[in-house]
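Notebook, student rotation project (T.W.).
Task set for the rotation: take a protein with a known small-molecule partner, predict the structure of the complex, and write up what can be learned from the model alone. Partner molecule chosen: NAP. Sequence and SMILES entered below by T.W., checked by me.
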Amino acid sequence: MRVLVLGGTLEARLLSARLCAHGELSVTTSLAGVVLDSPPPPGRVRTGGFGGVEGLVSYLLQERFGVVVDATHPFAQQITATAAQAAAQLRIPLLVLRRPGWTPQVGDDWVWVRSMAAAAATVALAPPGRVLLTAGRRAVSSFAGDATHHYIVRSINPPVGPLPPSMTLVLDRGPFTIETEHTLMVEHAVTMLVTKDSGGSMTAAKVAAARSLGVSVVIVARPPVPSGVPAVTTVEDAERWVASHIRYA
Ligand SMILES: NC(=O)c1ccc[n+]([C@@H]2O[C@H](COP(=O)([O-])OP(=O)(O)OC[C@H]3O[C@@H](n4cnc5c(N)ncnc54)[C@H](OP(=O)(O)O)[C@@H]3O)[C@@H](O)[C@H]2O)c1
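Predicted structure of the complex:
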């Protein structure tokens, strides 16, 4: 049986590795190709967008996939919606693998918001200060209208669109440690952190560093999993789900 894993995350890579060990599965990982994914995941790899729902439907039919696992990032909303529509159209079993989100601990000062626009509105109301923005390069334009705060923007690639008038750009990619996040926040005298609830360990160090420094956090909640699509939070559960479909394929 052919399995399509929509990737771009550590979990997708780990799942593809586990599935490749099943002799009866042919595993293809699909990557958007935006950021270099190294090393490449095991099994077959394809790169680039499908061309929306229509493109993914054609690809699924052409390659005769039996099941699809959407293991993309929790905030990769477009591809998740596309996968849900394409799988429903073809009646192909689809699973969402989404690592657990973060939960506040003692000492955390978090404000949950539903969107990047709401995060920008929340920051705008805060006293003047220095804001570490680590929510992806497309998020930066939401803060372009704020002349009260200085932004320290950290992203893998330079941000796109309008930028806040007062800004320092730090181009870097994780994983980061609590120590390096701590140093970054101290060096830039950060008073507030804006982040998405990405979950996982790769980027969790920044919230731990914020806790230790008493830096307040504006955290954007995840978009919901498309209704009717089953979801799991661990690679092991995703592997079990795929295995359960081999028997009935
Ligand atoms: N958003 C984040 O914070 C984040 C963080 C780390 C990693 N990533 C990974 O980076 C990729 C892009 O993220 P995004 O937020 O730009 O996603 P997105 O907004 O949901 O996707 C934008 C477009 O990129 C294409 N695409 C996305 N993921 C794909 C995949 N795995 N295989 C083939 N095409 C894909 C699709 O193009 P078509 O419509 O043409 O099919 C999709 O419509 C995702 O695969 C995600 O797992 C995202």
